[in-house]
Amino acid sequence: MAPPPPSLLRLLCVHGYRQNERIFRERSGALRKALRKHAELRFVSSPLRVPPPPGAPPQPPAGDGTPAGGSEEDVRGWWFSNPDENSFNALDHVETSKGLEESLETISKAMIELGPFDGILGFSQGAAFVSMICALKQQGDPRFKFDFAILVAGFRSKCKLHEHFYQEPIVVPSLHVFGDTDQVIPGEMSQELSMSFVDPVILTHPGGHFIPVSAPQKPVYLEFLERFQKK
Question: Is 180 a member of any domain?
């Protein structure tokens, strides 16, 4: 008799800034298709709503994650670098931030209600957030139980309050994916984040700010995931 196929891995997927779980699910359709025999992807929304600019008419938001359909809608972020305006910019060097603890509680709740999960995947601000969760897991935080992380277009937060997340090397197995022509999160920022991890797997692609799933990248995802599949 042929051995049974390996069981599907379960991944919790963390969206980028100005996205939500529905937008991220739609924008990761190619990834879900590529991984369908290897992983089940579940999605979660941040508790923090991003307000539209004062007096601005509905329009596609710029930067990280234009909502599907091209109209302003319920978009979210995992923390704000500008607490006064409830806004975020990955390039902001700031002393304080807002909303991170609420977001951590949301992920903790999702892991209980939707889990258990084998891994966690984040995109852009979501990838930066996932790196913080990896650091907390390593520090013994019992809320976060998973085996590996996939970080797409991630970066290290430039908030002074977040420096403690990067003070020691993170041993959680990690795959870091970023584009050579990313104009939102330059590849150098993602490379810097990867250096916070021990033995990171690096996957670069010639494109911009998206999750690449073309022929050159798919085998890298699968090879990484196979390390954690239960035979």
Answer: yes
Note the pLDDT tens digit of each residue in 30-83. Answer: 999 999 999 999 999 999 999 986 655 554 443 444 433 334 579 999 999 999
DSSP state of 217: T
Catalytic residue numbers read 124, 182, 209
Instruction: Give domain status of residue 55, yes or no.
Output: no
Q: What is the pLDDT of residues 144-167, one digit of tens each?
A: 999 999 999 999 999 999 999 999
- CATH number, residue 174: 3.40.50.1820
* Residue 60 maps to a domain: no
Which secondary structure element, helix H or strand E, spans residue 65, and what is its range?
A: none
Q: What is the pLDDT of residue 230?
A: 78
Domain that residue 29 falls in: 9-48+72-226
Distances (CA, A) of 196 to 185, 193, 200, 212, 218: 17, 5, 9, 23, 24
Instruction: Report which DSSP code applies to 83.
Output: T
87 forms beta bridges with 82
Is 168 a member of any domain?
yes
Angle ∠(201,213,122) on CA atoms, nearest 5: 60
| Whole-prediction pTM | 0.89
Q: Name the domain count of the chain.
A: 1
